[in-house]
Amino acid sequence: MVGGESVSWDLVVGQQEAVRRLEAAVTAPVHAYLFVGPGGAGKRRAATVFAGELLAAADPDNAERHRRLAVDESHADVHMLDPVGNSLRRDEEAEPLIVQASRSPVEGKRKVLIVNRFHTATAAAAASLLKTIEEPPATSIFVLLAEDVPPEHITIESRCTRVDFPPIAEEAIADALVAEGLASPEQAPIIAAAASGSVERARTLVADDRLVARRDAWWSIPDRLDGTGAAVAVMVEEVRALIDDAGKAKVAQHEAALEAMDAREEQLGTRGSGRKDLEARHRRELRQFRTEELRFGLATLATRYREAIVAGDDRRGLLDGIDALRHTQDALVRNPNEALALQALLLRLPSLAQ
């Protein structure tokens, strides 16, 4: 580490290869990086730690201050762009970012511009950013965070150093929960299994007292399958109701945020300022929450069938079931009709009823 011993990279859970590459890059950074991986894989935290190390390398006397402020996302020379709507837009976000990149650093020799959810950038936004990312000011370093690389972003990808962030292994998540004092060694594996490779989701689930009930509901499905659509319809309704119940806390948070916005607007005498974007963000967060819950359920079913294979049950039929689960999991990125997708899946799964 630059400027003395630092433990800041320890904040990045379960991404040893990405951390190794970024540590090596600190002494001679390039102008742009693209971090690619699913939500919750630690890209944002890695970006802020990396930014702190870059600033520390340029100012060793104040290294720890740079690291601390960067990780807290409060450093004057670390700029985090969070798209407020469903996409990163040219006029509202890309153009102001270009202006920001052209300005001199406030405190030192470098500034780091982190762009969250870059995979949502419109074609116009990506095109406007291309020249700046190709030839940024000497003092600016871009770090783009994306869940994938759409075809219209291939050119920008080619101008960046790509660093992949795969889903975090369950064991690494469980170890982190125990190390942080958030869960016992007995609880941590259950929470990690439900986290869909996201340490952020795992930390949220620590306080979820209905998690085990949802896991048990998914686990019991193979025992209740009898080949009829009626049984499938009942089970789909049950698990969706459990997901609805689990999402109530997030809905309450969203309602509180909207009420706070209304109060601020009433106080300032403004109306409609940002409400549409906030509601869009809330819808996106709820979709993400439900997708994570479905991934948890599908992973639970896959584990159940794998255990049945180990126990010596019909291997061919069980492998077909696991394959159906995999196809359904892959289809979640297209936001399918939830009820219909689950019904179609359960009708294909083998029964484990005795």
Which properties best describe this structure?
5-stranded parallel sheet, 5 strands, alpha/beta, 2 domains, globular, 354 residues, Rossmann fold
Can you describe what's shown?
- The protein contains 15 helices and five strands.
- It is of the alpha/beta class.
- It has two domains: 157 residues, P-loop containing nucleotide triphosphate hydrolases (Rossmann fold), CATH 3.40.50; 141 residues, no CATH class.
- It has a five-stranded parallel β-sheet, sandwiched between helices.
- The longest helix has 36 residues.
- It starts with 15 loop residues before the first helix and ends in a 6-residue tail after the last helix.
- The N terminus is likely disordered.
Order of helices and strands: HEHHEHEHEHEHHHHHHHHH
The CATH architecture of the largest domain can be given as: 3-Layer(aba) Sandwich
CATH class descriptor of the largest domain = Alpha Beta
Number of H- or I-type helical stretches: 15
The separation of the N and C termini measures 58 Å
Structural class: alpha/beta
Domains (count) = 2
What's the overall average pLDDT, rounded?
91
Give the percentage of residues in beta strands.
5-15%
The CATH superfamily of the largest domain turns out to be P-loop containing nucleotide triphosphate hydrolases
Question: Largest sheet, if any?
Answer: 5 strands, parallel
Largest sheet: spatial strand order = 2-3-4-1-5
